[in-house]
Amino acid sequence: xxxxxxxxxxxxxxxxxxxxxxxxxxxxxxxxxxxxxxxxxxxxxxxxxxxxxxxxxxxxxxxxxxxxxxxxxxxxxxxxxxxxxxxxxxxxxxxxxxxxxxxxxxxxxxxxxxxxxxxxxxxxxxxxxxxxxxxxxxxxxxxxxxxxxxxxxxxxxxxxxxxxxxxxxxxxxxxxxxxxxxxxxxxxxxxxxxxxxxxxxxxxxxxxxxxxxxxxxxxxxxxxxxxxxxxxxxxxxxxxxxxxxxxxxxxxxxxxxxxxxxxxxxxxxxxxxxxxxxxxxxxxxxxxxxxxxxxxxxxxxxxxxxxxxxxxxxxxxxxxxxxxxxxxxxxxxxxxxxxxxxxxxxxxxxxxxxxxxxxxxxxxxxxxxxxxxxxxxxxxxxxxxxxxxxxxxxxxxxxxxxxxxxxxxxxxxxxxxxxxxxxxxxxxxxxxxxxxxxxxxxxxxxxxxxxxxxxxxxxxxxxxxxxxxxxxxxxxxxxxxxxxxxxxxxxxxxxxxxxxxxxxxxxxxxxxxxxxxxxxxxxxxxxxxxxxxxxxxxxxxxxxxxxxxxxxxxxxxxxxxxxxxxxxxxxxxxxxxxxxxxxxxxxxxxxxxxxxxxxxxxxxxxxxxxxxxxxxxxxxxxxxxxxxxxxxxxxxxxxxxxxxxxxxxxxxxxxxxxxxxxxxxxxxxxxxxxxxxxxxxxxxxxxxxxxxxxxxxxxxxxxxxxxxxxxxxxxxxxxxxxxxxxxxxxxxxxxxxxxxxxxxxxxxxxxxxxxxxxxxxxxxxxxxxxx
Length: 771
What we know:
There is one protein chain. By secondary structure, the protein is of the alpha/beta class. It has 4 domains: about 5-160, 2-Layer Sandwich (Chitobiase, domain 2); about 165-530, TIM Barrel; about 540-615; about 625-770, Sandwich (Jelly Rolls), CATH 2.60.120.1190. The protein contains 18 helices and 34 strands. The strands form 8 sheets. The protein has an 8-stranded parallel barrel with strand order 7-8-13-14-15-16-17-20, surrounded by 6 helices. Strands 27, 29, 30, 31, 32, 33 and 34 form a 7-stranded antiparallel sheet that branches. It has a 6-stranded mixed sheet with strand order 1-6-4-5-3-2. The longest helix has 18 residues, at about 60-75. It is globular.
C-alpha cells in the first residue's frame, strides 16, 4: 500500500483526533486523511495563472486537465500557464520526491495562492479532484454558470489512499452497454478517486470483445435471440425473435483504454473460462466436450457451459488472450474461474483422459490444471492472472490474485497462502442487489445491500495478521446486469453506493455515517450536473408498528433517519413534498392506507419509504410462532405476519416477508375477545427458481381458550406456476372465536430436476388477515 511521509502521518493522527470533536473540515468525498483549515479563501479569477514546476511533463499537464477544462466550460476562465512565479493569485503544481506513495498528494490553499505537490502525476490528479470538490458544484456544469464566485476555502490537505486497488466491475455481457456510457462511468469514477474499471466482456449471454482471428465470436456470440435474459443462440428455434446484443471493436476498446489512462484509471478485461462460455461455444462448438459415447454434443439444441480441456481449446483461448493483451495493457488479466459445474468433464472421454495423463484425482484438480496452464501463458506475456475465489479449488495457481466474492473466506484463505486479494463479498459489494425495501425499487436479482452497509464495510478481515492484511490490496463493487438492461438503471444501481465504496477504499478510517451523509447530500448536485440517475435511498428508513399501551391504537413509527432532517408524510401513496404534513412522531393507523414517509433536503425528496397498511381483527394483536423464521428473513420481527404492514408483491426480501427453510409456518393470534370470523386471508410467496414454494396444505383452527383448537378449514392443491405473491382468501363461514391458529405445511425437499434439487424448500409468509 502507499505510505505517507512521516510528517503527513503525524499530522493525520493529530488532526483526526480533533476532527472527531469539532466535525468535518471540508465537503470532500472520499474524505482526506488530514485537513487543517486556515482563515480566508482563494478566488479563481480571469487573471489566475497556473505554474508547472516541470513544464515539459505531459503527464503532469494531463493530471491538471480536468481543472483547466471545467473552469473553461463552467466559469469561462482560461487558466493559462506561466513560467515565472507570480506575486499572487496563482496555482503551482510540482512533482517532488518529498512525497512518497504513488497516489499521495499535498495541497496548501492560501488566499493568494494554491500549491499542489505530489510524487507522481496520479497524485496531482487526485489533488485536482479534491480542489474541484472544494469549488461550488456548478464547476461540473456542462454550460457556462452565471453569478458564481469561484472560491476555495483556505486549508492544508495531506492525503493518500488506504488501498491501492479501488474498483468497480461492469458486466457488459448480459446487457451490452453503449460505448459513451463507458466513458461516462470513467468520468464519474475519477471524481471519486477510483482507479480500476473491471469489464466483464464475455459470458454465456454475450461475447463483447472483437476477435480478428475468430470472427464468429461476435458474428454469433455477440447476439442472442429472444428476451433480454434468454441465452439461446439456436436462431432456428425462435424464428420470430429479433437479435439482441452488440460488441466493441478493438479500436473502440483501445480508445477507451486511452481515455481511462487520461483519468489515471486502469481497465482490467475479463474473459470467462472455463464456464459461462455458451456464447463462445455457440460460435465454435468444436471446443466443447464430447458426450460419454465420444460424440460431439448436439449443437445448436444444446450448448454447453464449459470448455473442453482438449489442446485445441487452449490454443483458442491463448489466441484470444493474446488479442486481449494487445488491446489492454493492464497488469491484471481476469480469467474468471467461477461457477464451473464440471458435469461435462466427468463424462467427456477427452477430459477423463486428461485427468489420467496429468495424474489428477478430481475435476476440481482439473480446473486447477486449466487455470494454471492459462496462468503460465499470461505470466510469459508479463501479466498476472486474477480470478474469482473458485480458482482456489484444487490448488491455487502460483502467482494468481484472488477476488473474494462468496463472502470473505476465499480472500482470507488466499492471503494466508501469500496471494494478493481484492475483496468483493456479496453482502457489501454486489450492486445488483436491491438497495432499499421500497416497493417501487426496480426489479433486481435479489439480496439487499444498503448504502449504509456498503459504507460500513472494511476490506481487511479482522482474522488476518498484520503481514496477511497487507495482501488485501483493496475492494471492488460489482454490477452484474441480468436485471440491468440500460445505462440509466446501471447508474441507479451504482450510485450512491459506489461513492460509499470509494471512501471505504481511499479513506480507510471511518467517519461516522451521518457525517458521510452530510458530505454526500451536497455531492448529489454534482451528479445532477452529469445527469446521473442515482438512487435517492440515502438512509436506511424503516417503518415499525406497535400498539399504544394507553390508547390501544396501532401506530407506525419511522426509524433510521438521523436527527436534523425535515421529514414529511402522505397516506395516499403519493411521494411527500414540502407542502405535505410534517412527520413529528408515531402515526395512528385506523384504516387501510398507503403510508409514505420521506426526507426533504434543499427542496428535493432524497429518500422515502412506502408501506401498505391493512387493518383487520388480527392486526397488532398478540401473536406467537411455533417455529422461528430463518435469521436472514426475519427483519420484520416474529410478529411481521400480523403487524399490519403488507409485504411486496414481487420481492421476498423487503423486510416484511418471513421465511422458513424446510419448516412449517404455525402461527397463533389472540383477538382479545371472542369475535365473529368470516374470512381469513393468507399471503404466500412462490418462486421455484429461488427454491421458494407454496405450502402443501393450509389449515385454520380456532379456540376460545388458546389450548383446545378445532380445525375449521383445510385447503390443499396450492401449487402454482405463477411467481410472486399468492394471496389465498378463504371463506370460513360464520364462526365465533378468540384464538386463530394457521398452519402452512412446507413442501419439503425440492424434487430432482428443479433448481436446488435435494435441498429443503423455502416457505414465505406475509400478512395474515382475519375479518
